[in-house]
Design brief:
Shape: globular
Radius of gyration: 20 Å
Number of helices: 9
Largest sheet: 9 strands, mixed
Oligomer: single chain
Structural class: alpha/beta
Distance between the termini: 40 Å
Number of strands: 15
CATH class of the largest domain: Alpha Beta
Strand content: 25-35%
CATH architecture of the largest domain: 2-Layer Sandwich
Helix content: 25-40%
Length: about 325
C-alpha cells in the first residue's frame, strides 16, 4: 500500500481521493493532505481519514508520506515536483505537467536524480477504447494516416469568477487548454506521435475571464495534419478521429469507437465505463512498487508541455510556430 498526500483539495483533488480512498483492493491511500484554504477542506479531510497539514513543507517533512499527488494550480507544479523529489517523495502530478518545456525538463531531471517515480495525470490513456485504437493503428488497419481531428469542450468557465485561480489567464492560458484541451494533445501524441508545428487562434467571445474559444491547426512529424478545438463555454463533448487511406477510426465520448473502412462494413463498439482516475493512481502505485513503468513516458510528457507552450506563442503572433 502506497501512503500518499493530496495537495490541493478542491473539486478535482477530491475526485482523485474519492477514486481510491477506502475502496477494496486499492493500492494507494491518502493519509495526509493540504490545500490553499484549510478551513474549506476540514470536513472532507475528516470524513476521508486524511490528516490535514498546514502547508506543503509539512507534507514533505511527514515521514508517513511516501508520495504526493498534486492537484494544485498549474504554475506551482514544477517547483512542487522538484521539492518532492528532493524530499525523496514519489510524484503524481495533474495536467498540465508544467507551463514551459524548460521547467518540465527540470522537474523530470530532479526526479531522475532522486530515483523517484514521476507520473502525469492524463487519465484518458487508461480508456479501453484508446487501447483498441492503438492496436488497430499498430496493425495498419487505417493504412497511411492522413489527418487527425480532436475536440474537447465543456461549460466549466461559466463558474469562473475574477479572483479564482482557474480564472487567471496566467494559470489558464488559451482558455480551455489547461483543463481540457491538453488531454487531446496528449491523446494525439499517444496515438500518432510528435508534433512538428502549430497555428492557433484563441479569443474570448463571451467569457469575462479566460478565452472561451481556442482552435489549432498542426502538422505531426509523420506528415499527418491536425485540426483541434477546445471551448470553455460549450456543452461537454469529446471526440478524436483518425483519417487514413484505408479507414476512418473515431472515438466519440469515452466508450464508443466507430470504424469505417474504405471498403467493407462499418462497425461500432461500446466499451464499459472505466474509473480512469482510479486506474491512473493504481498504475502510479504499481510503478512505485517496482511493477510496470507508468504508461506515459516522461519524454512524451515534456513534448506535450512543449506543444502547449508553443501554442501560446503561436496564438500571440498569429503565425506558424515549430515545436522545439
Amino acid at each position: 500500500m502506497l501512503n500518499a498526500a493530496i495537495v490541493g483539495m478542491g473539486a478535482w483533488g477530491r475526485t482523485l481521493v474519492n477514486s481510491v480512498q477506502g475502496k477494496p483492493g486499492a493500492r494507494l491511500r491518502f493519509v495526509a493532505g493540504t490545500t490553499g484554504t484549510l478551513e474549506k477542506a476540514r470536513d472532507f479531510a475528516a470524513e476521508k481519514g486524511i490528516r490535514l497539514l498546514p502547508d506543503y513543507a509539512a507534507v514533505l517533512a511527514d515521514p508517513e508520506v511516501q508520495a504526493v499527488v498534486l492537484a494544485s494550480p498549474h504554475s506551482l507544479h514544477a517547483e512542487q515536483v522538484i521539492a518532492a523529489a528532493r524530499a525523496g517523495k514519489h510524484v503524481f502530478v495533474e495536467k498540465p505537467f508544467t507551463l514551459s518545456k524548460a521547467t518540465a525538463e527540470a522537474a523530470v531531471a530532479a526526479c531522475r536524480r532522486a530515483g523517484v517515480v514521476l507520473a502525469l495525470g492524463h487519465n484518458r490513456r487508461f480508456l479501453p477504447a484508446v487501447a483498441e485504437m492503438k492496436r488497430l493503428l499498430a496493425e495498419g488497419s487505417l493504412g497511411t494516416l492522413l489527418h487527425v481531428e480532436g475536440h474537447f469542450s465543456g461549460p466549466g468557465a461559466l463558474a469562473y469568477k475574477p479572483g479564482m485561480w482557474r480564472a487567471d489567464r496566467e494559470e489558464s492560458p488559451l482558455g480551455g487548454m489547461a483543463g481540457m484541451g491538453i488531454h487531446i494533445v496528449d491523446m494525439i501524441i499517444n496515438l500518432c506521435g510528435r508534433f512538428r508545428d502549430v497555428r492557433v487562434i484563441s479569443r474570448a467571445r463571451v467569457s469575462q475571464t479566460i478565452d472561451d474559444t481556442t482552435a489549432m491547426m498542426a502538422t505531426l512529424e509523420s506528415g499527418a495534419t491536425v485540426t483541434f478545438a477546445t471551448l470553455a463555454l460549450a456543452p461537454r463533448y469529446w471526440r478524436v478521429a483518425l483519417f487514413g487511406t484505408d479507414a476512418l477510426l473515431e472515438m466519440r465520448g469515452h466508450e464508443t469507437l466507430i470504424f469505417r473502412p474504405r471498403q467493407g462494413e462499418e462497425w461500432t463498439r461500446n466499451f464499459p465505463p472505466t474509473d480512469i482516475e482510479r486506474a491512473e493512481l493504481e498504475a502510479f502505485a504499481a510503478a512505485v512498487a517496482g511493477g510496470p513503468a507508468y504508461p506515459l513516458p516522461v519524454e512524451e510528457a515534456i513534448h506535450g508541455v512543449s506543444v502547449f507552450e508553443t501554442m501560446i506563442q503561436a496564438a500571440t503572433s498569429g503565425s506558424v510556430h515549430a515545436i522545439p
